[in-house]
UniProtKB/TrEMBL annotation:
It is found in: Cell membrane. Coiled coil: none annotated. This is Cytochrome b. Residues 4-173 form the Cytochrome b561 bacterial/Ni-hydrogenase domain. It is a multi-pass membrane protein. SUPFAM superfamilies: Transmembrane di-heme cytochromes. Keywords: Cell membrane, Electron transport, Heme, Iron, Membrane, Metal-binding, Transmembrane, Transmembrane helix, Transport.
Length: 174
């Protein structure tokens, strides 16, 4: 078995990181840009966020085609279980976040465009639901920073301290 993730998984993994950074960056920037640009920056947030959803779904499909490559030297069992739980947590959180974002707009009765196409209103606007869903979206987004941070720190721990091939397995190469 290869000692790396499949090339498609590696490309999709790092592309997801890029889109996640752009999604967060758009929201962090929205109050610093001239007011006239705010709608554009918000719409970029919605579209970058939607691309994270699509990428995570594609990754779930692609991972069914490839076995996860083993780590060398092998992980202790608790590390193996911990990594598995964390990876599933990443899938769940970064699939939920875009869905909650879309619901926030829908319950707010707000129009937005997906890749330039107007998204139709598909639920009855409801201010109470909007507030609830928006709070969950924003709280989960803040938790997301810590989840990604812990995930990246774990990768660095494996590479520099445990000196195994966890990170190299996710890096492009021959
Ligand atoms: C990976 C995906 C996403 C992440 C990480 C993310 C993250 C965030 C963050 C950090 C905020 C600001 C929180 C705050 O100010 O405390 C936010 C707000 C928001 N997001 Fe997302 N988001 C994602 C996807 C989406 C999507 C797909 C949509 C809608 C299509 C969306 C709609 C919204 C809305 C409506 C707000 C509130 C904006 C406002 O204050 O007016 N998000 N999101
Ligand atoms: C600096 C940022 C990041 C680094 C250094 C990093 C590193 C890695 C490494 C080394 C692996 C392989 C781990 C293993 O097989 O045990 C991995 C897997 C994974 N990463 Fe990341 N990652 C980063 C960001 C992200 C982001 C932003 C997401 C998603 C939002 C993500 C989601 C995942 C998932 C779901 C897996 C498991 C892949 C699978 O088996 O399907 N990563 N990452």
């Amino acid at each position: 078995m290869s000692n790396r993730y499949a090339r498609s998984q590696i490309v999709l993994h790092w592309l997801t990181l890029l889109m996640v950074i752009l999604t967060y960056a758009a929201m962090l920037l929205k109050d610093s840009v001239p007011e006239a640009w705010a709608p554009l920056v918000k719409n970029l947030h919605f579209n970058f966020g939607a691309s994270v959803f699509a990428l995570m779904l594609i990754r779930l499909a692609v991972r069914t085609l490839h076995a996860t490559p083993p780590t060398t030297p092998p992980l202790e069992e608790w590390q193996e279980v911990g990594a598995k739980i964390f990876h599933w947590l990443l899938y769940v959180v970064f699939l939920m976040l875009p869905l909650l974002g879309v619901l926030t707009l829908a319950y707010g009765g707000k129009s937005w465009t997906l890749l330039g196409w107007p998204v139709p209103q598909w639920v009855t606007p409801d201010p109470v639901m909007r507030k609830l869903v928006k709070t969950v979206h924003e709280t989960l987004a803040n938790i997301g920073y810590f989840i990604i941070g812990a995930h990246a720190l774990a990768a660095l721990y494996h590479h520099y301290l445990r000196k195994d091939d966890t990170l190299r397995r996710m890096m492009p190469g021959k």
